[in-house]
Amino acid sequence: MYTRKEIIDILKDDSQNDYLFSLADKVRHDNVGDEVHLRGLIEFSNICKSSCKYCGLRSANSEISRYRIPKDEIIKIAQHAVDMGYKTIVLQSGEDAYYTTEMMVEIIKGIKNLDTALTLSIGERSFEDYKAFKDAGADRYLIRIETTDRELYKQMHPNMDFDNRLRCLKDLKILGYEVGTGCLVGLPNQTIESLADDILFFKEVEADMIGIGPFIPHPNTPLKDSSIGSFTLALKVMALTRIMLPDINIPATTAMETLNPNGRIIALQSGANVVMPNVTTTQYRDKYEIYPNKICINDNPDKCRNCIGAKIESIGRTVATGYGFSHNRDNI
Ligand code: SAM
Ligand code: SF4
Ligand code: FES
After folding, report:
1. Is the beta carbon of 50 within 6 A of some atom in ligand 2?
2. Tens digit of pLDDT for each residue in 259-285?
């Protein structure tokens, strides 16, 4: 385990990167093994009431063509993913209140009937909503803190409240979800010190899953002229997270592969043990443009499943056949 000062020193010094990545790989191997868990990601709505400055789905972006996938179609997409062997479905969207509590409960129940674990990533909702979703069968929830630097959080999220984000994480924990959070790496004005604080925060909240993605500027956002996040720095934050939280689930993120054509494999060899391939029907993919040049936008669910399976096997790892619940929970 590293102290805050050690984490900062490691993040600032690139001379030991190879050692860091191989240590994180060993910690991953020793604690969660060689299996890679696939989570099939359904991006079911790109409509969002929020205005996160970095995100292409922000409400003020009028250039994007908006869509909502109807309930029955979402369940059909999930069925196809289960037929392809996925053991977890992830439902992700913008902050879209069109999907009421009742609608989400129906969708959750429909998907849980398919014998799969279910993760939600639909943003900030009330305790009552989170409870209804849990009671309907949802197993996990992803909601990144994005940054633990309160001042930076305010700059990046003009109409959001850091404390409400924390409240969401706390409610989800209380309700017994497996909780995933994470951060962006490379936001304008983000410091190395605050990234160290992010890693310490992940430990403090005892996250079950941490997703780390490099920031990629989107041309239709206020951050269009900002510098792109560093792949290597994002990989270092991820590797340190693995060392600090040895038995959690860590995805090799799509944003990493967007910056580096081999990014997910490199991440899997530097601490990651999860991949979240897109299982959304091709017709919607290019519209879920949170950042430009996102991978797989012209591909289909079957192609992605075969592609990622082959990549995983090419590095001597195997695709897991279980549900992939977090190792740091003994109640599931
Ligand atoms: N709306 C939900 C939320 O914000 O929690 C879920 C969907 S949101 C598109 C999923 C993640 O996309 C966010 O947590 C954020 O970290 C990431 N994201 C958004 N814009 C990005 C960008 N320009 N570069 C990299 N990641 C980005
Ligand atoms: Fe909406 Fe999530 Fe994008 Fe923020 S990150 S604008 S909440 S979709
Ligand atoms: Fe989509 Fe490779 S994962 S084509």
Report:
1. yes
2. 999 999 999 999 999 999 999 999 999
